[in-house]
Amino acid sequence: MTAAAPDQDRARVSRARRAFVWFGIVVPVVLTATAVVIQLAVMGQVPDPVAVHWGVGGEPDGYAAAWSVPLLSAGLGVGMTVLLSAFALIGAREGEWGPTMRFLGSLTPAVVGGILMIITWTFVAQAGLTTATDADGIVEPLVWGGATAIVLGVVAWVSQPRVVVSGGTVRATTEIPSLARGERAVWVRTTSLGSAGMVVLVGATVILFALALFDFAAAGGVWPVLLIVAGVLALVILATVMFRVRVDAEGLKVVSPLGVPRFSVPLDQIVDVRVVSVNPMADFGGWGVRKGLDGRTGVVLRRGDAVEVSRASGSTFVVTVDDATTAAGLLLALRDRDARGGAA
User: Fold this and answer.
1) How far apart are CA 313 and CA 270, in angstroms?
2) pTM score of the predicted model
3) pLDDT at 243
C-alpha cells in the first residue's frame, strides 16, 4: 500500500470487500437456501431412507433418513461459507487486501455450489422411487456439479476487482549502519506463533495422546493410529510454530528448532530488502510456512512487520519478526559493504 494515496487505497479495498461479500458470502448462502427449499419441496416424494452414497461401480451403497439431506445441505453450505469466507473477512478487517482474498471469494461459491448441486440432483432424482436401491448412478450429478463449480468460480473471480493493498505497506527502516572492513555484526531474534494458536495446536495434540492412552488402557485397537497421528502433529508443531531468524555476513537465515524446515538467502543473492506490513490471511491465506498467490514465500506466524527480501532469481521471501527494521537495516549495510568490496 502506498502512503501517497490512502484514500484511493481505501476506496479500492472497499470495492473489493463488497464484491467479496456478495460472491463469498451472499451467493453461497442463497445457493444453500435454494437447495434446501428444493429438497424440502420433494421430501414427500422420495423413498425413506434415501441413497446418499454410491460405490465405485456407480451403484448406491449408503442410505440415510430423507430428512437428514436438507439438514446436511444447510450445515455444509453455511459451514463452508463461514470457514472459507466469513473467517477470512474477519482476518482482513484492518484495511489490507490481497489475491488470497479474491481467490477465497471465488472458491467459496464454487465449492458450495458444486457440492449442493450434486446433493440436490441425487436427492430429487429419487422422487417417485419405491426404494432407494433403484436410484440412478452418480456420474451425471458429478459432471454437472463439477461444471457448476467451474462456472461459479470463474464468474466470481472475474467479477472481483484485482486489488493488492497489503504486504506492500513499507515501514521506515532504521538508519543503515556503515560497516568497516573486518567489522562483524549479527542480529538474532525468535519468531513464534501467537499464544492462541499455540494453545489450540498443543491442546489438540494433548487430546490425541490422551485418547491413545485411554484406548490402550481399555484394550482397544485404535491407539496405535491415534499415537502416530499425535506424534506427527507434535513434530509438525515443533517444526513450524517457532523459528530462529539470523542476519549476519552470510545473509538471512530462518531455521526451526528441529533444523527443518530452514530457509536461507545468501547475501550475494539479495537484490532488495524492505520492511513490510503483513496480514497473514489477506497476503498468504493463513499462518505458518506459506506460499502466497503473488509468488512470495513466507514464514508468517503473526500480523505485523516483516522482513521482505528480493532475490536475484526474482523470488521473494518474507518472515514476520520483531524488530524487523533493524534486521533490514543490517542486511542492507552488509550488502552495501560487499558491493564496495569491503567484506571481511
Assistant:
1) 9
2) 0.62
3) 92
